[in-house]
């Protein structure tokens, strides 16, 4: 019995299909959604969602963070932003990372919540670059 | 009786007006289709978010202090966010909305609330600056008839969330035009804070056994601001589609009226041309007879 996976960004539904297993980048570590998983809701960090069919990864999506709702039959991923890993533009992601890093150095030391959200976005950008490098190496 | 030359100029004028209105109608129609598609595409996210919120609300029910974003503040400052268009020429689109905002504001004030208004879009900004200059928080620009990006809604949501967290406001209501069809847009009042607790509509799934990671409070704290952004996004999309629908209808009417005016003017032109000719003929004939 497969699990119905949906990847949804605010703009549109990106992916809806029944797969054998989905591995999600949870904020406290990766988590795999399989049929008959105990119902759980979790926060996602920036990272790659991998969809498995017959023990093989068939598709990968990059999500920049968000939420996931897993029940025994389905797995709904509410991504802040999402795109197939093959469509990541490496140079854009790198540019974004550089911009975030300069922002981070300029943030006041006592502004913890701002630092927090920035460091989360930096991690997400790093994960995006990493995913792009694995999926389509530039050299 | 205007002269033939004047009539000719007016006919030419109305004809070029008709060209403009009919072009605007076409543009609005094609934009309307696009915006409608966007509005539909954004629905799954909002639906899933509502489902998660209702689960979380059920799980956190009776667990002490709820976040300010959920139950609002204890004061009586009420923020009304108004979504209008940047451009006119859309029939009663903005005027209807402004009228219902006036009703809402006077109702809230009768309930003893301190009202603040945050208009988005130039038309609403103008009206609010005129009607409620003292209640105006800031005038924000609208989307200018262009595509609505999620970032716009995210910024708006962040702004409102920040005001709420800072204790400047206690409650938030969103007023916008809901898109019914190309002819009809209904001014709609949607309370954002306190959150109308969503009905738990999926009774078949066993909700009591949900686990939360990291925990309910943290998830709720992250989900609530996101929910406000999503609500704004949905409303912005509805309003954008409604604006194009209203403009399409208004321009369709204008084009038809221009056609009628052209027929009218042409008839008058032909009549007076004919009567001029007749007059000239009579003059010539009577002149010839006199000889």
From TrEMBL, chain A:
One GO term describing the cellular component: endomembrane system
GO MF terms, alphabetically ordered: ATP binding; proton-transporting ATP synthase activity, rotational mechanism
Residues forming coiled coils: 83-135
Ranges for domain ATP synthase F1 complex delta/epsilon subunit N-terminal: 4-82
A Pfam short name: ATP-synt_DE_N
Membrane topology: Peripheral membrane protein
Gene3D superfamilies assigned to the protein according to its UniProt record, in alphabetical order: F0F1 ATP synthase delta/epsilon subunit, N-terminal
Cellular compartments annotated: Cell membrane; Endomembrane system
Entry keyword set: ATP synthesis, Cell membrane, CF(1), Coiled coil, Hydrogen ion transport, Ion transport, Membrane, Transport
Chief subcellular location: membrane
Summary of the function given for this chain in its UniProt record: Produces ATP from ADP in the presence of a proton gradient across the membrane.
Family: Belongs to the ATPase epsilon chain family.
NCBIfam families cross-referenced by the UniProt entry: ATP_synt_epsi
Quaternary structure, from the entry: F-type ATPases have 2 components, CF(1) - the catalytic core - and CF(0) - the membrane proton channel. CF(1) has five subunits: alpha(3), beta(3), gamma(1), delta(1), epsilon(1). CF(0) has three main subunits: a, b and c.
HAMAP family per the UniProt record, alphabetical: ATP_synth_epsil_bac
Protein name: ATP synthase epsilon chain
From TrEMBL, chain B:
Keyword Nucleus: no
Compartments reported by the entry: Cell membrane; Membrane
Alphabetic keyword roster: ATP synthesis, Cell membrane, CF(1), Hydrogen ion transport, Ion transport, Membrane, Transport
Cited Pfam families: ATP-synt
KW Repeat (keyword) present: no
SUPFAM superfamilies: ATP synthase (F1-ATPase), gamma subunit (SSF52943)
Biological process terms in GO annotation: proton motive force-driven plasma membrane ATP synthesis
Major localization class: membrane
Superkingdom of origin: Bacteria
Membrane-topology descriptor: Peripheral membrane protein
Annotated InterPro entries: ATP_synth_F1_ATPase_gsu, ATP_synth_F1_gsu, ATP_synth_F1_gsu_CS
NCBIfam families: ATPsyn_F1gamma, PRK05621.1-4
Function: Produces ATP from ADP in the presence of a proton gradient across the membrane. The gamma chain is believed to be important in regulating ATPase activity and the flow of protons through the CF(0) complex.
Family per record: Belongs to the ATPase gamma chain family.
PANTHER family assigned to the protein according to its UniProt record, in alphabetical order: ATP SYNTHASE GAMMA CHAIN, ATP SYNTHASE SUBUNIT GAMMA, MITOCHONDRIAL
UniProt subunit comment: F-type ATPases have 2 components, CF(1) - the catalytic core - and CF(0) - the membrane proton channel. CF(1) has five subunits: alpha(3), beta(3), gamma(1), delta(1), epsilon(1). CF(0) has three main subunits: a, b and c.
Name of the featured protein: ATP synthase gamma chain
Naturally occurring in which organism (per UniProt): Swaminathania salitolerans
């Amino acid at each position: 019995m497969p699990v119905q996976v949906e990847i949804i960004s605010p703009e549109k539904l990106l992916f809806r299909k029944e797969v054998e297993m989905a591995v999600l980048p949870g904020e406290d570590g990766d988590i795999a959604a399989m049929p008959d998983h105990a119902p759980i809701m979790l926060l996602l960090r920036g990272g790659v969602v991998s969809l498995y069919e017959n023990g093989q990864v068939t598709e990968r999506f990059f999500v920049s963070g968000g939420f996931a709702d897993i029940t025994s039959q389905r797995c709904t991923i509410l991504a802040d932003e999402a795109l197939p890993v093959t469509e990541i533009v490496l140079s854009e992601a790198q540019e974004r990372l550089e911009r975030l890093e300069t922002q981070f150095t300029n943030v006041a030391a006592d502004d913890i919540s701002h630092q927090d959200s920035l460091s989360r976005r930096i991690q997400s950008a790093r994960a995006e670059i990493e995913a792009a490098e694995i999926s389509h190496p530039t050299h | 009786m205007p002269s033939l030359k004047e009539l000719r100029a007016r006919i030419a004028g109305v004809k070029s007006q008709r060209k403009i209105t009919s072009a605007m109608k076409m543009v609005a129609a094609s934009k309307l289709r696009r915006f409608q598609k966007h509005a539909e595409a954004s629905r799954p996210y909002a639906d899933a978010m509502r489902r998660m919120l209702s689960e979380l609300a059920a799980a956190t029910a009776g667990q002490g202090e709820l976040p300010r974003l959920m139950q609002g503040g204890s004061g009586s400052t009420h923020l009304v966010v108004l979504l209008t268009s940047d451009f006119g020429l859309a029939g009663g689109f903005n005027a209807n909305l402004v009228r219902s905002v006036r009703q809402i504001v006077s109702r809230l004030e009768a309930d003893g609330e301190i009202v603040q208004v945050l208009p988005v879009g130039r038309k609403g900004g103008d009206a609010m600056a005129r009607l409620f200059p003292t209640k105006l928080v800031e005038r924000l620009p609208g989307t200018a008839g262009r595509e609505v990006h999620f970032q716009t809604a995210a910024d708006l949501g962040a702004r409102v969330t920040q005001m709420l967290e800072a204790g400047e406001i206690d409650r938030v209501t969103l007023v916008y035009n809901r898109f019914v069809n190309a002819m009809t847009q209904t001014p709609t009042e949607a309370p954002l804070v306190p959150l109308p607790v969503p009905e738990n509509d999926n009774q078949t799934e066993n909700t009591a056994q949900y686990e939360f990671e990291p925990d309910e409070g943290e998830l709720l704290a992250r989900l609530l601001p996101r929910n406000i952004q999503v609500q704004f996004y949905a409303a912005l999309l509805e309003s954008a589609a409604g604006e194009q629908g209203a403009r399409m209808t208004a321009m369709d009417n204008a084009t038809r009226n221009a056609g009628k005016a052209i027929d009218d003017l042409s008839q008058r032109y032909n009549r007076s041309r004919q009567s001029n000719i007749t007059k000239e003929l009579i003059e010539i004939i009577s002149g010839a007879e006199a000889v």
